[in-house]
Give the backbone structure.
Amino acid sequence: MCGIVGYTGTRQAYPVILKGLKRLEYRGYDSSGVALLKEGKLKVYKKKGKVAELEEEMIGKEIEATIGIGHTRWATHGEPSDRNAHPHSSASGKLAMIHNGIIENYAQIKQELLNKGYTFTSDTDTEVLLNFIEDIKKNNDCSLEEALRIALKRVSGAYCILLIEQDNPDTIIAARKGSPLVIGIGKGEHFLASDASPIIEYTKEVVYVNDYELAIVRPDELILKNIGNEKITPYITKLDMELAAIEKGGYDHFMIKEIFEQPSTIYDCLRGRLDAKESIIKMSGIDQNIDQIMNANRIMIVACGTSWHAGLVAEYIIEELCRIPVEVEYASEFRYRNPIVNKGDVIIAISQSGETADTLVALEKAKENGAFIFGVVNAVGSSIARISNAGAYTHAGPEIGVASTKAFTGQLAVLMMMALAIAKQKGTVSKERYDHLLLELEQIPEKAEAILKNAKELKKIAEKYKNASDFLFLGRGYNFPVALEGALKLKEISYIHAEGYPAAEMKHGPIALVDDQLPVVFIATNDPYHEKIVSNMQEIKARKGKIISIITEGDTVCPGLSDDYFSIPLVDELIAPILTVIPLQLLSYYVGTAKGIDVDKPRNLAKSVTVE
Ligand code: M6R
């Protein structure tokens, strides 16, 4: 939530910051702004709307500077507007600051400042924190760094902040707690950003800043300190990412690029881990902790949104194959509801970004209680990856479209491999079934490719139903979570109200919605419930609902019951969700684009939810 960029060096800062903001726009896009510092003059420009509107606004403005900070916002405190956009300037006009996160006790601090005669030009918690820092600096006659340190000790909440000061011509001061910060190390220059995407074009050497750390960044110097003012040696990592991975590469949107990348991202996820011929799964995170995981009394899965749906699929699979009880929790509920977590409990955390605030805090809480955390994360080096005791990356590459697609199928592939590896060790799966499932998993990239070849069929279906006001998604068994995911995808990027349900549950309420205007999407692939789902289709047909079905090639029953259908290759029911979700991703994409929606940046959403 919110993207931040900073630069100090010898290049022109504005083009670096602007490009960086465009790359980070997935994190929030209701307003944006930059602050540039040249020869003791601090200039702040900001604009409501997407980064392109800021760019337009900047034409003809003074942009020369070799140090600057930039921000793209997802509103928390205060509506999206020019005045609430970041950077904020302090009362004296000498400081400028950008912030990603929430200052929870801002109201109290604001009142103290109001009592001292401060006035505010925005509704944001950021402006409050900035003036608080300036007030401390003035009263203590101390450096900005010292004032920041004192202020942060009073502050509760989450933040990643970048500060520049008029009287300090080449220095950016940064601090982080709960919101990510990466610093890129160049030759005589440094880059700061919420993730590595604005940095990789210039350098692959980065430092991930940890919670409660402050960075003093100059062109030739990076000083890292903890909040107690002790120096820390920066740990430099090499980025394993190419620029092409964060560009559209000829596609209209990141979302469709990412959907089409799935055959290769799933392949990358399986590569080096699964060998069906040799009948092995090698996952170091599992292999090294097998006793802990295998002997868990229960496994809890903690996640949000699409990642939570992957968790539901995993619950079905782990219980089936490993015979270990599994509970799946929304991280936002788990963190507040005083759950029973004991030493030795295994928590699987699933997250694309690895920065989701609710998931992160839930894990901190579980870890305090002695739980073992296994992270299934996409973003390498992210906070959740680092807080986990062990884990497995999904290797889907950067996911930029707000709607999660390739990360979901990557999560499923990892979770399926994990379940198979544990089941084999535990002896709860027969050799025959194990070998069969390995083979099925190995064939997934090829089958995903076959589905994508027919994407145009879904475009036609989308055109037909794009004006519907509601959709229902129904599935049974392993495909029930896929129905939830299909509904979430459609809501997110087409603004059509959609609900996902277990197909049989439909009779207990949602059937009242069915009329001749309601499209009902059935995931009705070949599995042991096929006859049951056919009965559910009959029930919808009898009430004149419009049926769109995702079926297995060669199905002779469902086409006759469906208004429209899309076939996928035959696949084992346990593995099916990795494939059945792809047509639903495509359907949403085509409905969203047919309605003229910017599917990569749908309204009100942000890719990485780093606030509660
Ligand atoms: O980065 P995470 O996987 O932790 O994010 C969780 C959700 O915010 C995310 O899946 C969200 O629901 C997506 N926009 C869904 O497409």
Summary: The radius of gyration is 25 Å.
